[in-house]
Specification:
CATH topology of chain A: ABC transporter involved in vitamin B12 uptake, BtuC
CATH architecture of chain A: Orthogonal Bundle
GO molecular function (chain B): transmembrane transporter activity
Structural class of chain A: mainly alpha
Distance between the termini of chain B: 48 Å
Subcellular location (chain B): Cell membrane
Family (chain B): Belongs to the binding-protein-dependent transport system permease family. LivHM subfamily.
Structural class of chain B: mainly alpha
Largest interface: A-B, 46 and 47 residues
Oligomer: heterodimer
Distance between the termini of chain A: 46 Å
Number of helices of chain B: 11
Radius of gyration of chain B: 19 Å
Number of domains of chain B: 2
Largest sheet of chain A: 2 strands, antiparallel
Strand order of the largest sheet of chain B: 1-2
Number of domains of chain A: 1
Main location (chain B): membrane
Largest sheet of chain B: 2 strands, antiparallel
Pfam families (chain B): BPD_transp_2 (PF02653)
Strand content of chain A: under 5%
Shape of chain B: globular
Helix content of chain A: over 70%
Shape of chain A: globular
Strand order of the largest sheet of chain A: 1-2
Helix content of chain B: over 70%
Order of helices and strands of chain A: HHHHHHHHEHHHHEHHHH
Number of strands of chain B: 2
CATH class of chain A: Mainly Alpha
């Protein structure tokens, strides 16, 4: 973490072309309007959907933003982020059950545990790049899954942790509708933290590493340490989502650690748009809503649909929703100026 | 001593499956720079193919051993032409994601048709019972698997090192641009090589059918262990992938036998080995360093 403090001022250097900066270049009123629309949508959400689905959307939004922080802004595709999401879910659940703390404290404990777990995994994983990074993170996440599966005295194995309480200073949060508003501030804080990281000098260095690692190293940046820091921060944010997911469902099962969960997080990011940050939020809303609708209509082969969407998105729609919208808006903007 | 040999033998047998799968992954990666997430799903399809041929058409094991890998190889070639081919010029991550999507689809298709329970597949009668190789009785079928897998690995090695086809594939793996410049049509070999790698996965699946439970998720967790195996061996190295496959099989079997109080050891030892290899030789035991990053 110390490396982030003494980052040389880098803002004067011409920035690399990336999705990140096009958002910053949009006129101020557009950005404020989008922010206002997002906040209104977040406040309205549980009135338009089942509150339980809205809770899931918020958790997955954090998860997707965490994955995009690595994939979109550091150029590292983690295919093992279920390790942090799931580890935090278990730790949050255990803390909430045994210590009886208010749920934000339990979630914070879970997210910190996820960040601690991210240190050794990240340390080893950043030794490789590209496709190898994906395979290594996937493998370590599977190891965490096996450990959780065997460590039955703590994780209850296949039965899962049941009865995770939603305590908050005696408030009655048993209704998902009220719980949604109780967790919303934590989610917004997490999203704001991700935005702050991306738009800090530290975030600029990450993008520089993504676009040209050799040059970043030649400029004197400790590339591995930057990647590791990004990995740990991402693990923490994913952990916030996982902890809230545990409290939201009042139940933690081994599914939270399975590789399909890691894969789904990447699906959500690609659908929303890699390197767009908020695209992941949209992707999360769509995928969670769709899965809910499918299971509601008793359609059992959910993988068939998510897999199919994934194949189509990767083949035909690689910019994702946010990326495509951004490109359209930019074209409209420049044509108007002429 | 007998116990040790028995454990070693069992380790080599499960290593044979890792080796066959890692070999297919490595061949595909070498030619296409694609890490095929769906490799485990094709292994599962191989086992299901044998099962379906036997139960619905009465095709015996020996015929399935030929028909299923060829059929899956053709299916793989079709998928390569239809999808994977379109993404090979992009970052390899896109094909990783694409094949991840294909995995979910293939698994769920089989699940829809056959459910999630395991289906039994009888060991072919010629390979039932056991053989005595001096020290103790080996189950005949396992001896067959081990011998067959070693034979396949040697055959692939011979194909790559002693034939003109192998020369082209190796050249295209090392320096695709230069190979093209010599007037060799590299693109012509991409699809067959992909099909060949898928065929190997299918072959491993047919071999697994009588020994392991045939169910739609049998390849799901296996493929991740195989990923760790190829990271250990070095994905660019054919020999490394095969050697790491057998090696991990051995270590797992020994762990299972001598640390049976800690079942977690044999499940996670492959990932611990991977961590050590990443610390010591990040490019894998037999791999070469990729471009610095």
């Amino acid at each position: 973490m110390t490396s982030t403090v003494d980052t040389p001022a880098d803002a004067t250097r011409p920035a690399p072309p990336s999705g990140l900066l096009t958002v910053a270049r949009a006129p101020g009123w557009v950005r404020y309007a989008l922010l206002a629309a997002g906040l209104i949508a977040a406040l309205w959400l549980p009135n338009g959907l089942y509150p339980a689905v809205a809770v899931d959307i918020l958790c997955w939004a954090l998860f997707a933003v965490a994955v995009d922080l690595l994939l979109g802004f550091t150029g590292l595709m983690s295919f093992g982020h279920a390790a942090f999401w799931g580890a935090s879910a278990y730790v949050t659940g255990l803390v909430a059950i045994h210590a009886g703390l208010p749920f934000p404290a339990a979630v914070l404990a879970g997210a910190l545990a996820a960040a601690v777990l991210a240190v050794p995994i990240g340390y080893l994983a950043v030794k490789r790049t590209g496709i190898y990074f994906a395979m290594v993170t996937l493998a370590f996440a599977q190891m965490v899954y096996y450990v959780a599966n065997e460590w039955r005295s703590v994780t209850r194995g296949e039965n899962g942790l049941q009865g995770v309480p939603r305590s908050l200073f005696g408030l009655d949060l048993s209704d998902d509708y009220y719980f949604y508003y109780a967790m919303l501030p934590i989610v917004l804080l997490g999203l704001a933290a991700a935005w702050r990281i991306v738009h800090s000098p530290f975030g600029r260095v990450l993008v520089g590493i993504r676009d040209n690692p050799a040059r970043a190293r030649a400029l004197g940046y400790p590339v591995h340490r930057y990647k590791l820091t990004a990995f740990v921060l991402s693990g923490f944010i994913a952990g916030l989502g996982g902890g809230l997911f545990a409290v939201g469902h009042r139940f933690v099962s081994l599914d939270v650690l399975h590789w399909t969960t890691s894969g789904k997080a990447v699906v959500v990011v690609v659908l929303g748009g890699i390197g767009t940050l908020w695209g992941g939020v949209l992707g999360a809303a769509l995928v969670v809503r769709l899965e809910d609708w499918l299971s509601f209509s008793n359609f059992e082969a959910i993988g068939l649909v998510t897999g199919g969407i994934f194949v189509l998105v990767v083949l035909l729609f690689r910019r994702g929703i946010w990326g495509s919208a951004e490109a359209l808006a930019r074209r409209w903007w420049t044509s108007r100026k002429r | 001593m007998t116990g040790f040999l028995q454990n070693t033998f069992n380790g080599l047998v499960s290593g044979a499956f890792y080796a066959l799968l890692a070999l297919g992954l490595a061949v595909i990666f070498g030619m296409l720079r694609v890490v095929n997430f769906a490799h485990g799903a094709f292994y599962m399809l191989g086992a299901f193919g044998a099962y379906v041929l036997l139960t619905e058409a009465g095709v015996p094991f020996w015929a399935a051993l030929v028909i299923v890998p060829v059929g899956l190889g053709l299916l793989g070639m079709a998928l390569e032409r239809a999808f994977i081919h379109r993404l090979t010029r992009l970052d390899p991550l896109y094909n990783f994601l694409l094949t991840f999507g294909l995995t979910l689809i293939l698994q769920d298709l089989v699940k829809l048709r056959y459910g999630v329970q395991s289906s039994p597949y009888a060991t072919p009668s010629a390979l039932g019972g056991s053989v005595n190789l001096g020290l103790f009785d080996f189950p005949t079928y396992r001896v067959f698997i081990l011998g067959f897998a070693v034979l396949v690995c040697v055959a692939v090695w011979w194909l790559l090192s002693h034939t003109r086809l192998g020369m082209v594939v190796r050249a295209a793996t090392e320096r695709p641009e230069l190979t093209r410049a010599f007037g060799i049509n590299v693109g012509r070999w991409v699809t067959p090589v992909f099909g060949f790698g898928i065929g190997l996965a299918g072959l491993a699946g047919v071999l697994a059918a009588p020994m392991r439970a045939v169910n739609p998720l049998m390849g799901a967790d296996l493929i991740i262990v195989v990923f760790a195996v190829v990271v250990i061996g070095g994905l660019g190295s054919i020999f490394g992938s095969v050697a790491a496959g057998f090696g991990i099989g051995l270590v797992q079997a020994w762990g299972e036998a001598y640390l049976s109080d800690f079942p977690i050891v044999s499940q996670t030892v492959v990932f611990v080995v991977m961590a050590v290899v990443l610390l010591w030789r990040p490019a894998g035991l037999f791999g070469r360093e990729e471009a610095p990053a």
